[in-house]
# Entry
Amino acid sequence: MPNFTVDLRGRAALVTGAGEGIGRAIALALGGSGASVFVNDINPDRADHVADEINAAGGKAFGWQADVANRFQVGSMIEAMRDRFGAVHLLINTAGVDRPSAATLVDEYDVRRVLEVNLIGTFFCCQLAGRVMLDEGGGIIVNVASVYGHSLARSDSAPYIASKAGLIGLTRSLALEWAASNLRVNAVCPGDIQETAHESLAPGNPQHRLGMPEEAANVVLFLCSDAASFVTGQSIHVDGGLSMP
# Structure
């Protein structure tokens, strides 16, 4: 796969849920493009490992453990990032969980956990980082949603799909509210991606394959670059054509 990079030198990026999968690919891509990366994950070992990968490659990164569903922890994380990097220019909300189950059987805890991490946690990150960005003259937020929350449905995933649909609505609302303040907000909607797709899933898209995490990361890089300066409030599918009519 060809490498895709943009020039993000001088930018400070927070990536939530960056310990594995798409989040890890995004963190590595941002670091490779010159951004200083604050690597968040609920698992501290994963966060530190990804930060070490970026630093070993000549970039600048720092790992930080936090549960995005906890507003206090989100606030502490953002302040720690400002202390270390001096600013918050980019926020990539990748943290997410799924608890596949039939809607009639899913446990109450699992429903709440999926919504709290995927939707409420993302709102906390947007709210608190957005305050900093607005004070600093603008910024960029990219929310990682899902094609299944936009134009497709999937059985046994009702809470997950509800959270991702809500995330797309949140993206549009924040983009409208903050557009005049030089704060762009977009969403990337991956389809079936390696490391995140259900193990038994057979690719049903026209390309007949699972996507790579790096392919989602490339779109995030574009949205974080000056090339996307007139793009806000959009939900961009990265799905091999799965969602085509």
About this structure: The chain has one domain: 12-238. The CA atoms of residues 52 and 61 lie 7 Å apart.
